[in-house]
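does this look right to u?? nicotinamide-adenine-dinucleotide version
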Amino acid sequence: MSKARVLVTGAAGYIGSHTIVELVKAGYNVVGIDNFSNSKPSVLDGIAAILSERIPFVEGDCCDTATMEKLFRDYDDIAATIHFAAHKAVGESVREPVKYFRNNISSLLNVVQMSVAKGTSIVFSSSCTVYGEPDPENLPISETAPRKSAESPYGRTKQFCEDILEDSVKAYPNLKVTLLRYFNPIGAHPSALIGEMPGGVPENLVPYITQTAAGIRSELKIFGKDYPTPDGTCIRDYIYVCDLARAHVAAVDRMLKDKDAPRIDVFNLGTGRGLSVKELVDAFISVNKVALPFSYTDRRNGDIVQVWADPTKAEKILGWKADTPLDQILKSAWEWEKKVRNIQ
Ligand code: NAD
Ligand code: UD1
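got this back:
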């Protein structure tokens, strides 16, 4: 029997590239699409070096219906789409909401339209941001916790996209969907051939840490030290990107192979372990034995105090667990930064 093909949108992005590697390792054929709005073509070289083969790839915009129609015509064996392609910078989404609504929603609508026409399944990249600031009694947070009003246009696109998919499953009997709500993805492939590559000044913690350790930034500013947490800094659930990538394979497997699976399901993807900013910084320094200048500054607008996942459902139903030790994850992040910066 020929292998099923998975379309990966946002293929050259951070999570998409790592997921392609895991899909191919798991025996899937893939085809990728990306418009390189937040990535570089060289990522495809990294994937090829890891897999010893180049993946089929289309440079194009998922918002362009003709491009998507052609892609589905050219690859008529697509069985599922993992839809990563989206803009994701929270601050930018506040300044340019229309850009976010246009890209993140139009691209999803095309994926839904093609999936319905071809009878194929969808995995959607959602985010723990849909939960907003959880009530402390809801921690760790499970999939049944209420979604809260979004803190940013970016977060709202995730909620809208989830709703669009829910309505579509009700309307189109052949559509199957899995919503994956990621917590905080970090780290890089152990080969250091692919990893996170933010453009400009990083907004996220781990790229800021690695760039500071590499001397690109003079010091890390920790946003807030008076939060109601044990050490006063915010708490998050940091999940290794390769563990996260494997969860996508498990989600596709289930949709394609388990005839009894519900037509739409949602999973939290985290470790179940909350870590403070200060704990993460200390762990990075101790594991990598590097200097990391840091100081405390004001809280960042819109930051939530603490959130971490209850990943029990994913473990029970997808048979998936994020089990890579933190040391290994933080080493991978530093190895990647060193590779990118040519540091020995
Ligand atoms: P990324 O920016 O590295 O990857 C997204 C890729 O999609 C980029 O390569 C970009 O060029 C591409 N893209 C964007 N719009 C496109 C379009 N219209 N057509 C074709 N390609 C397009 O981001 P990532 O970190 O890999 O995130 C992937 C998905 O996961 C996104 O939907 C993001 O919102 C979601 N997510 C990410 C995080 C995170 O912290 N990284 C957390 C929760 C959810
Ligand atoms: C960000 C996104 C959120 C997304 C999540 C998962 C924002 C406001 N939110 O959240 O929508 O779902 O990623 O990827 O960007 N920190 C510092 N100094 C820094 C950078 C970060 O102290 O220079 C702190 C932050 O205050 C936070 C923690 O580190 O407490 C993690 O920050 P970040 O990596 O930006 O992720 P989130 O804020 O969780």
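Residues 90, 127-129, 155, 184, 203-205, 208, 220-223, 234, 236, 277, 300, 302-303 surround uridine-diphosphate-N-acetylglucosamine (ligand 2) (CB under 6 Å). idk if thats expected tbh
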